[in-house]
Each structure stands twice: as C-alpha cells, then as structure tokens.
Amino acid sequence: MKKKIELCLSDRTVSTELPALIMGIVNCTPDSFFEGSRGGLERALELIEEGADIIDVGGESTRPGSEYVSAEEETARIIPVIEGIRKVSDIPVSVDTRKKSVMEAAVTAGADILNDVSALEDDAAMASFAARAKIPVILMHKRGIPSSMQGDTKYNDVFAEVSAYLSERADYAALCGISRDKIIVDPGVGFGKDLESNKVLIAECGRLCSGQYPVLMALSRKTCIGQMTGRDIKDRLYGTLAADLVSVLRGASMLRVHDVASCRDTLAVLQSFRNSGLVNF
Question: How far apart are CA 22 and CA 139, in angstroms?
Fold first, then answer.
C-alpha cells in the first residue's frame, strides 16, 4: 500500500516513498533544549547524509522559558548556514522564524519553506511576503510566548480549540494569497499544553482542520516524551520514535526530528510492512 508524500515548493517538489517527509533540525542557537541539535553547516550536512528530506534552520530558540532575540541577531545566525547548504546541496531548507525581514533574507539566500510558530500572527507583513514568494508555510498553534507559555495549559477541549485556531489561521493565510496546497499545520505539542493535551493532539493529529492540510508533528525529545518514559533529554530517542510512529499512523505526513537516520529506519520498516500487504494501517 503506497502513498507518495509530496510538498510543492516555489520551483520544485519534494517527495518521499516513506510514510512521511523527514525534516532535520539545525538550531543555530546557544540555548536550544537539545544540545545535539545545536550547530550550523556541519550539523546540516550530517543530517543531509543521514537522509533528511528537508533541513529546518532556526536562529531563535522557542523552548519553554526562552527569550526572543532581535531580527538582526537571528539573521546573522542563519544566513551563513543556508548559504553554506546551497553551495553543496539543493535540499529544501525550512526556516523557523516569526519575522518577515529574517524570512526575506533567508529566501534570498536560498530557503524554500516558512516554519512560523506564531502562525503568521507576530509579523503583519509575513503572510503577504510568503504569498509573493510562493513558498509553503507551516502554521503552528501556541498559547502565549515561550518565556511564560507553560503557565497556562488548561483547555476545555484541546483538540477542538487547537483545530479551530489552525483552521482560522489557514483561512487567513489563504485570504492573504497563500495557496491552500502550500499550507501545513502543526498542533504545537509542548507549546502551552500539559501531558494529556499533548497526547490527545498526537493521537488525533490527522483530524486537525478536518484533514484539509498536511500535518507536521514536532515531538523530538520533548518534555512530554520525558514524562511518558521517565528519561532525560539525551535518552529520549526511543520514546520519540514511538511517538512519531503513532503520529504517522494517526495521519501526520511530516516529522521534525533531531535524529534523522533513526527516524528513516522506523518509517522504512513501517513502509515495508505496508508494501507487503501484511498490515493495513
């Protein structure tokens, strides 16, 4: 049972025969929660070698308790990495930013995808720029800002509230000229949610926005994995792989991960069983 997963960029298409596209994380920051993701071009090249479909570059940490940085500092951190990737590879590059000036510089340097944790809310000029550039956008749900977001994690119905928010932001993106086939949604696991809320969003991810948009899940080594396994960050790989697998089985088509090779192996085993017809999930 094969179903090709693909994403249309401004000038080409990225696709995979595996059950999900794999986005490798490169944090060009000194304070991202997982030390193994920090780095620059060298880290990006490692993830490309491991088989990433997309490289996600970020210059501003959004872990719980982190503080925002200036656009100038963020730009200075990521542009050399994007330029370095472009010298050796045409792999799609996603940029984790909330700021139009940063994204504009990144696209000029060769970036292909916007990954906006504010779902186009923090910079009024971002949506129209993304529309003009014809780039895909990832819209994420969060509550509050990273420095204080874990202070309010209660919802009446977390799935309904997150899904409604993402639908509203997708409608806004479309109104600004972004093609709906270039909209991806992310429920924002760990961003203003407690463990039970995170589990609901993982288990029901494919139903977000009534299944209208591809779903990206970013679960890698997060606190909720630690809560479920009792493991520290450095020992959360196996728990992450299990959670990623659950999310794919429940409808996710993109995974944002620190550990690309392990993720590819997990998806390859699932695909092998599907191809053989021995499983129907």
Answer: 17
